[in-house]
Amino acid sequence: MYEYEYEFVFVLDGISLDDHDAVRSLSENLGALVSTFHGVPRMSVSGEGKSAVAAAFAVVKRAYELVPSMRIVRLDRDMVGVSDIAELTGRTRQNVTQWVHGQRHDGVPFPRPETVVGRSLAWLWPEVNEWLRGLDLDDGLNWPTRDEMTEIDWGLRNFRAIRLNLVLHSDGADVRRIARHLAEHARTNPEFIRYLLVNPQVCDAGGKYTVFVCSPRNEAVEVFRRLDSFPHPVVLATVSGKRIHAFVMEGDEDEGGETTELVPGMTVRDWLGMIALSPGRGFTVARRGGTAGAATIAARSPMDLVGA
């Protein structure tokens, strides 16, 4: 998939134009322009990614590496009125008013106004810009859509809140590779961040989200016993091809439910196959002495992540 360049204007906190080293670092290493608007610091910057969301969090990650003390609060909503649109397009206010009322460019309605400033209507510039693209009057730049802005703002609120406790079942290359990708997803992937936030039961005593990483070739019985040793539910993560598979592994409270015993020789890949066939089923293992094991673990909240 191709990567595209997107434009962003972020609202900042914890930085000012007097922070010369920070402003210079963002400019030289990220190509960002830090400015203020009515006393509020903002950062205008471009970023590349497969989507606007991916590009935004790549920028955010790099900005935090450069200036850890700064906080990126949200995206700035660039609002424009009739006069602004006329100036940006080189057309008259009358032309723009005709667009707004549907008297020109038939068949493609002008975007709905976002708000009213004083007595004048105001629109979200990215939506107007996209509409102008049909007239070849846009600014030639890619801006995040309304939905993408919402997703980026949601991710920004939790971007620095996610801390992982990555537990590796083995030191294999594939296990270490999965762990690296999970650490990256926890910093930049809103979908994975949301997945962890809605499963707080996997947090350890220190507030870190516990993720147990294993290879699909690992022995299922040994992985089960490691999972059973945790005092709380954990996320089990493994890989298949280019996809990371994640499940919340927790004790099965349904004593009357059906269970399946994992036996020696089964791999984690075999276990995942059984989970796919019987979602929600509890699993157990025999004790080392051969008697049936008391613990039952079920896989909940399945999730696939592309990029392994």
Spatial sequence of strands, sheet with the most strands: 8-9-10-11-14-13-12
Task: Tell me the radius of gyration.
Answer: 25 Å
How does the helix and strand content classify structurally?
alpha+beta
Mean pLDDT: 89
Question: Biggest β-sheet, characterized?
Answer: 7 strands, mixed
> What is the H-and-E element order?
EHEEHEEHHEEHHEHHEHEEEHEE
Q: What percent of the residues sit in helical stretches (DSSP H or I)?
A: 25-40%
Percent strand: 25-35%
For the termini, the CA-CA separation is 15 Å
Number of helices: 10
Number of domains: 3
Please tell me what the overall shape is.
elongated
Write the layout of secondary structure elements.
Elements: E1 4-13, H1 20-30, E2 33-37, E3 40-49, H2 52-66, E4 71-75, E5 79-80, H3 82-89, H4 93-100, E6 115-117, E7 120-124, H5 125-133, H6 146-158, E8 164-168, H7 173-188, H8 190-197, E9 209-213, H9 220-228, E10 234-240, E11 243-251, E12 259-262, H10 268-277, E13 282-285, E14 297-306
Parallel strand pairs: 8-9, 9-10, 12-13
Antiparallel strand pairs: 1-3, 1-4, 2-3, 5-7, 6-7, 10-11, 11-14, 13-14
Helix pairs in contact: 1-2, 2-6, 3-4
